[in-house]
Amino acid sequence: xxxxxxxxxxxxxxxxxxxxxxxxxxxxxxxxxxxxxxxxxxxxxxxxxxxxxxxxxxxxxxxxxxxxxxxxxxxxxxxxxxxxxxxxxxxxxxxxx
Length: 97
Fold this sequence. Notes:
This protein is mainly alpha-helical. The chain has helices at 40-51, 60-85; strands spanning 5-6, 12-13. It has 2 helices and 2 strands, in the order E-E-H-H. A two-stranded antiparallel ribbon has the order 1-2. Strand 1 (5-6) and strand 2 (12-13) form a beta hairpin.
């Protein structure tokens, strides 16, 4: 037995499955209007329109600080693991021996 939800006016409605609606068009998607981006230039224009030139650089500051910290942590862990496993350096000589 299948039951339908009523919308307050006595009209039944399904769950949106198989009703021919595209992604983001169904009720309850929480996405609002569907926007279609056509390319990088259009997206850049939209960002500049909505957030000004500063919108293009939003988030850059955190990435500038995040990069060196991530590399430092990676090298430190690499060095500690290498020491713990007893791996020896081969040296920086170019002879390959």
